[in-house]
What does this fold into?
Amino acid sequence: MKRWLLVLTVVAMSLVVVSPVLAHEDTGCAHDVATIASLRECVVHAQQMGHIESDRVAQKLIKQLAKAQAYLDCGKVDKAIDKLEDFIGKIQDQAGRHIDPMHAEHLIHHAHMVIATLDS
It folds into this structure.
């Protein structure tokens, strides 16, 4: 009886540790394509999955990405990068509030990938 209790405790504790990682793996992101559009898809997916719990925050993030895309479409790469840096700042501000901290890290990493692609 004590052995089964120990086994169940170990299994439960491992699920507590692993569950956020497993949820994080289903990001729905196309990381092989570092574009503003793929980052937008990531934000939409994060909202659908509940990683971004505020619709208002998600819409502000999407709006920032739309502005970045508009600058990029006009050939204003530096301004697009500035908007992406603003996007990162917004994510950092909302991490732990309205954005799951692990997913905030993911979004920031994804945004840095897009910036690196644009900056090259």
Summary: The chain has one domain: 35-119. The longest helix spans residues 2-25. The CA atoms of residues 40 and 62 lie 6 Å apart. Residues 14-25 have pLDDT under 50 and may be disordered.
